[in-house]
TrEMBL record:
UniProt cross-references to NCBIfam families, sorted A to Z: SSADH
GO annotation, cellular component aspect: cytosol
Keywords assigned: Oxidation, Oxidoreductase
An annotated Gene Ontology molecular function: succinate-semialdehyde dehydrogenase (NAD+) activity
Residues of the active site: E257
GO biological process annotation, one example: gamma-aminobutyric acid catabolic process
Gene3D superfamilies cross-referenced by the UniProt entry: Aldehyde Dehydrogenase, Chain A, domain 1, Aldehyde Dehydrogenase, Chain A, domain 2
Annotated InterPro entries: Ald_DH/histidinol_DH, Ald_DH_C, Ald_DH_CS_CYS, Ald_DH_CS_GLU, Ald_DH_N, Aldehyde_DH_dom, Aldehyde_DH_Superfamily, Succ_semiAld_DH
Domain Aldehyde dehydrogenase: 21-479
Record's protein name: NAD-dependent succinate-semialdehyde dehydrogenase
Claim: Oxidoreductase is one of the keywords in the record: yes
Alphabetical list of Pfam families matching this protein: Aldedh
Recorded family membership: Belongs to the aldehyde dehydrogenase family.
Upper classification of the organism: Bacteria, Pseudomonadati, Pseudomonadota, Alphaproteobacteria, Sphingomonadales
Length: 487
């Protein structure tokens, strides 16, 4: 183990199945590297179908007792988990930076963000309620009851290795559902550290399982199992569509948080300084590897040059460096393929007439460190107009009229997040209501928080996480009819 931790027990090279820390039944292991250096930081079990079935069986066995606990009791367990996560922010941040690459400050920020879902759903556990519907007969009563959907599966990506797990598992546990988590094979250690803290918080054996390994066999077993009643997936649209097909045979409940292609629109009447500051947050968080990152920056004629100049100044202050180097603001991308895709998008844009307007200094060694760039003259025939770049590239598209800006923003098969900047209230409502996205922000680059529903439309997904909607995804509605009452 190469990561220096205060609480070294948080770095675990075992899967967590039925309350036991285990290797794969096949004995196979998988190396995990540090994206900044390529050095192997550890190995995890390369679990397969048998291990996944064991986790599903453990979850099934744990379900009746967990569901039978009172909501307040489950909430208390989640409150303890929340406190333990916060007690260990520094170690969890180090583990995340080592396996994912993001700067330490961002990693610690993600841990606090991840913890916020645990706290929120601890509170929501006690707000699951039903109703009574006026019946068509005088001697009938109709009660609407909420019940946990059952054993749930969570498949999560590498870009937010902690928050995507708590955003799914905290509502599941709060609702009374046991979960089987399959983290990305590139970032399993954050998931295992969270499992360790869940165990210490008193989550019973079998209620929270983490199956590490390559995706196909684990995903196949989770989706084929009739015991698993719900799949929540965050990742690419391609894999989401595949998993949706795989879930069809067992008619599972599904929710999908998929890819995005967020527009960030700066109108002539915007406060340009606010637009620049929030474009920096929205575009360059996690080196651009965020599903809600602004992928396309659309700027109206009147402020285009001013916005480009101010953004260039801000970009020049970015520091590209390994995440554990003090002051690093842009870490490495997750792997060489990700860096190649970013390079290909930039080359494609330049070959179609874009200009390299500005770039950040980049003295980091290694092929995974992409240089943050601003491209002016971006147009819709470029790859980055439709594909998620998932890297630190800010392409500036120019538009003249409001209508043109909205049309350009919606010209994508995705519909996750959209940001826009204006000081005009009338325009604010006109634009917000026409943008095709699950989340729209006016004069802000921040839309991800536990209190607000998170999710997309079009090819960006189905269902919502966070807010009260997040726990509803793990609840079934039962209508209980009581007829023939002697009144
Ligand atoms: N909408 C959101 O909330 C959100 C959040 C984070 C990331 N994302 C999206 O995720 C993508 C980046 O993440 P990624 O590269 O890890 O995505 P990915 O789809 O390649 O992988 C996501 C997860 O699915 C697993 N997986 C891959 N193939 C599988 C299969 N055949 N069966 C079962 N599991 C399989 C992976 O191992 C990983 O755990 C981007 O498109 C990004 O926009 C979306
Ligand atoms: O990659 C997208 C995730 O949903 C991260 S966040 O919730 O926007 O922080």
């Amino acid at each position: 183990m190469t990561i220096s931790l205060k609480y070294s027990a948080l770095f675990i090279e075992r899967a967590f199945i039925g309350g036991a820390w285990v290797g794969a039944t096949s004995g196979a292991t998988l190396p995990v590297d540090n994206p900044a250096t390529g050095a192997i930081i550890g190995t995890v079990p390369d679990c397969g179908e048998a291990d996944t079935l064991a986790a599903i069986a453990a979850a099934e066995a744990a379900f009746p007792a967990w569901k039978a606990r009172t909501a307040a009791d489950r909430a208390a367990v989640l409150e303890r988990w929340h406190a333990l996560i916060l007690d260990n922010v520094a170690d969890l941040g180090r583990i995340m930076t080592a396996e994912q690459g993001k700067p330490i400050a961002e990693a610690e920020g993600e841990i606090r963000y991840a913890a916020s879902f645990v706290k929120w759903f601890a509170e929501e556990a006690r707000r699951v309620d039903g109703g009574i519907i006026p019946a068509p007969e005088a001697n009938r009563r109709i009660l609407v009851m909420k019940e946990p959907v059952g054993v749930s599966a969570a498949i999560t990506p590498w870009n937010f290795p902690a928050a995507m797990i708590t955003r799914k598992c905290a509502p599941a546990l709060a609702a009374g559902c046991p979960v089987v988590v399959k983290p990305s094979d590139m970032t399993p250690f954050s998931a295992l550290a969270l499992a360790k803290l869940a165990e210490e918080a008193g989550v019973p054996a079998g209620v929270f399982n983490v199956v590490t390994g390559m995706p196909t066999a684990i995903g196949g077993a989770l989706t084929a199992s009739p015991v698993v009643r719900k799949l929540s997936f965050t990742g690419s649209t391609r894999v989401g569509a595949l998993l949706m097909r795989q879930c069809a045979d067992t008619i599972k409940r599904v929710s999908f948080e998929l890819g995005g292609n967020a527009p960030l629109i700066v109108f002539d009447d915007a406060d340009v300084d606010i637009a620049v500051a929030s474009a920096m947050v929205s575009k360059f968080r996690n080196a651009g590897q965020t599903c809600v990152c602004a992928n396309r920056i659309l700027v109206q004629d009147g402020v285009y040059d001013q916005f480009a100049e101010k953004l260039a100044k801000a970009v020049s202050a970015l520091k590209v460096a390994p995440g554990d180097v003090p002051g690093s603001t842009i870490g490495p991308l997750i792997n060489a393929a990700a860096a190649d895709k970013v390079k290909a998008h930039v080359e494609d844009a330049l070959s179609h007439g874009a200009t390299l307007f500005a770039q950040a200094p980049n003295e980091a060694a290694g092929d995974r460190f992409a240089t943050p760039v601003i491209l002016t003259g971006a147009t819709r025939n470029m790859r980055l107009a439709e594909e998620e770049t998932f890297g630190p590239v800010a392409p500036l598209f120019r538009f003249t009229h409001e209508e043109e800006g909205i049309e350009l923003a919606n010209a994508t098969s995705y519909g996750l997040a959209a940001y826009f900047y204006t000081e005009n209230l009338h325009r604010a409502f006109r634009v917000a209501e026409r943008l095709e996205a699950g989340m729209v922000a006016l004069n802000s680059g921040a839309i991800a928080m536990e209190v607000a529903p998170f999710g997309g439309v079009k090819m960006s997904g189905l269902g919502r996480e966070g807010a009260h909607a997040g726990i509803e995804e793990y609840l079934e509605t039962k209508a209980f009819h009581i007829a023939g009452l002697k009144l």
